[in-house]
Amino acid sequence: MDVRGKLVIVTGASQGIGAATSRALAQSGARVILVARTESKLQALADEISAAGGEAHVRPCDLSDPAAVMALGEQVSAELGLPDVIVNNAGAGRWLSVDETPIEEAVQMMQAPYFAAFFVTRAFLPAMIERRSGLIVNVQSPMSRVVAGGCTGYAACRWALRGFNEGLRADLRGTGVKVTEAMFGEVSSDYWANNPGAEERLPGIANVLIPTMTPEQVGAAMVKAIRSERQLFMRPFMLSVILVLLWMAPRLVRWLTVSTGWQRPA
């Protein structure tokens, strides 16, 4: 899909991958709708995009609230039109074992990314199906494929998003609406600062084999993912190698991931 002139909604757009993706899309000629909770951060980003000659629209929303998301869908459709692309990027969550995770935090982690992606997609999907075109991009973590110790709640919400992605693709077969799963390795974003202790739990095997990407690199890659419309788009290249190895030798890769990751204190 050529993004020039396309209306693209990006969730989790206030910082990190979402902000970098929004900049890259606007630079490529897309009309970007910025969605997150914090209006001031979204407005600062919109001003930056506008100053650079791009088009950005601010729509603050609590994506864990289904009524608020449905209202967002009605407002966007009425004022700006039906999006051509949805980038479900919103996500959060500390890397904790089950016994370390407060119950309310486990619920919050499931709200974003899984429920946020479900609610936003649901708000626009009927009209996309009627139009018979559109692209839904679900931004994913490698923890949706192989899991290390000490991040059970985070991994569970990523596996839920994986199930949503696969089910959605099956639902939409023959409708003209496509689904892309965009997966990236470690990114040097605000996520690690906002979730202290998580980075230290990354498996050592990943740190050795998979280069860290900057948010800007991910933003540029996201534009390529949209243009390609592939079912699965991965960066960097070594992440693809690891997942091929997971398919060929699943027990070995899982053993390496667990054995080089977080270990429960004795």
Automatic annotation (TrEMBL):
<dbReference type="GO" id="GO:0016020">
    <property type="term" value="C:membrane"/>
</dbReference>
<comment type="similarity">
    <text>Belongs to the short-chain dehydrogenases/reductases (SDR) family.</text>
</comment>
<protein>
    <submittedName>
        <fullName>Fatty acyl-CoA reductase</fullName>
        <ecNumber>1.2.1.-</ecNumber>
    </submittedName>
</protein>
<dbReference type="Pfam" id="PF00106">
    <property type="entry name" value="adh_short"/>
</dbReference>
<feature type="transmembrane region" description="Helical">
    <location>
        <begin position="232"/>
        <end position="249"/>
    </location>
</feature>
<keyword id="KW-0560">Oxidoreductase</keyword>
<keyword id="KW-1133">Transmembrane helix</keyword>
<dbReference type="GO" id="GO:0016491">
    <property type="term" value="F:oxidoreductase activity"/>
</dbReference>
<keyword id="KW-0812">Transmembrane</keyword>
<dbReference type="InterPro" id="IPR002347">
    <property type="entry name" value="SDR_fam"/>
</dbReference>
<dbReference type="InterPro" id="IPR036291">
    <property type="entry name" value="NAD(P)-bd_dom_sf"/>
</dbReference>
<keyword id="KW-0472">Membrane</keyword>
